[in-house]
Structures are given as C-alpha cells and as structure tokens.
Amino acid sequence: MTGEPDRGSEASKVEDQLERAGIDDRPLAYGFLLGYIDLAIRGTQEYAAYQDLVFGPWEEVERPRGGWGLRQWRRTVEDRQALGPSQLLGVILIRMDFRDRTKPRKKRATPVAKRDPKRVVVLRVGTPRVLLAIETPDEASADRLVALALEVRERFRRQLD
Predict the structure, then answer these.
(1) pLDDT above 50 (res 109)
(2) Helix (H, G, I), strand (E, B) or coil at 72
(3) CB 79 within 8 A of CB 55
(4) What one-character DSSP code corresponds to residue 125?
(5) What is the reported pTM?
(6) What is the percent of the chain where pLDDT is above 90?
(7) Contact, 99 vs 110, CB < 8 A?
(8) Which of 9, 86, 120, 154 is least buried, going by the fewest C-beta atoms within 10 A?
(9) What are φ and ψ of residue 86, in 5° steps?
C-alpha cells in the first residue's frame, strides 16, 4: 500500500451522483445525437399544439475560427395555415460542443451565448454539451418555439434513457 487514496472509488462516487441526478455524461457521436433530436422534434408534432408546424432541412453552420470541436445546425420552423401561406416563426439552432472541459477556458462570446437565456434550452450536459437556441424577431413566436424546445428536451432525454 502506498498510502494514496483509492482514485477508483472517487470516480465511482461522481458517476453515482451523476446517475442519481439523471445526468448522462457518456460521449456520443454528433450524428446519433442529431438523429435523436430530429426524432424528438418529430415526436412533438404528435401533439395538437404543434401539428401545424413545418420544419425545414438541417443546415450545418460554418464553424467559427478556432471552433474545433464545435458543431452547429440550423433549421427553419414555419406555421402552416389551412387557407393561406405559411408564416415563418423562426429558426432552431442546435449547438454541440465536443471540446474538453477539463481545462479552464477563457470566456468568449459564441453565437448561442449572445442570445437571450430564456431562448436557450440545454438538451444535454457532459460530452458533448448540446444546446437548442431559438432565433425569432417577435415574442409571440418566441414563446411558442420555447415551449416546443422544452417539449423536445423532455422527449430527447427520455429517448436516451
């Protein structure tokens, strides 16, 4: 015995705390996560409140300079009218951060960090961290899309269980 504390037990204590808190910090590939997010969005369309929403295709956002480990996608959301044209409600932005968080980082403004915190929903903590942000010009559309984002978060978390 060297007299050092058992590091394995410390790691298992942290893992136990994460499990009890419902936090899954296992690393996953972005393709799987984007698929799960898409599945969660499709699932919310089963609710009457969201059946009239039409989602555009995923478009990857160009990585910012030095943005290794950061992936972002955008998707438009429209409200389909029965007797008239569709109305653009806004854009959903998905941000996956695969960067290692063991080192302290400098605070830098990122596209999601600049947004109103009420319009940002955390879908996943750990690696990668996944955020869903809402971009819309008016408050009525923002309220509707934030409610959608909260439903997506709930469905997304249930899928990963």
Answers:
(1) no
(2) strand
(3) no
(4) -
(5) 0.69
(6) 38
(7) no
(8) 9
(9) -75, 150
